[in-house]
Amino acid sequence: MTKTEVTTIQLDKSVVEALKRVKKYPRETYNETILNLIKNEEETREIGIFVQKAQEAKMKELWEEGDYSGWERA
Predict the structure, then answer these.
(1) Which residue from 12, 10, 33 is spatially nearest to 21, judged by alpha carbons?
(2) Distance (Å, whole) CA 59 – CA 68
(3) Inter-residue contact 70 to 58 (CB < 8 Å)
(4) CB atoms within 10 A of CB 53
(5) Which of 10, 29, 39, 58 sees the fewest Cβ atoms within 10 Å?
(6) Three state DSSP letters for 2-67
């Protein structure tokens, strides 16, 4: 079994309370909670990039066709 390196960080009490509220289960560690938050953020960012690329492709298609009627809703 390999020993994991750990560090001590200081958090505002309000941050600790917020972490307690977002735990998936009561015995989840703060480490697990923070890793879950990071994973969710990365997934959200990937979805955002996917949507942005789809929007860019559609807007390019519309612009090439000379159809600017959807610009107000873009």
Answers:
(1) 33
(2) 9
(3) no
(4) 10
(5) 10
(6) CCCCCCCCCCCHHHHHHHHHHCCCCCCCHHHHHHHHHHHHHHHHHHHHHHHHHHHHHHHHHHHHCC
In the block, tokens 């938050």 appear at 37
State the Cα angle at 50 between 47 and 60, rounded to 5°: 150
Planar angle of CA 44, 30, 18, nearest 5 degrees: 70
Match 């000379």 to its residue by tokens. 66
Which residue, among 22, 17, 25, 46, has the nearest Cα to 34 in the 3D structure? 22
Closest to 34 measured CA to CA, from 48, 16, 50, 47: 16
pTM over 0.70: no
- Residue 34's contacts (CB-CB under 8 Å, 6 or more residues apart) are 19
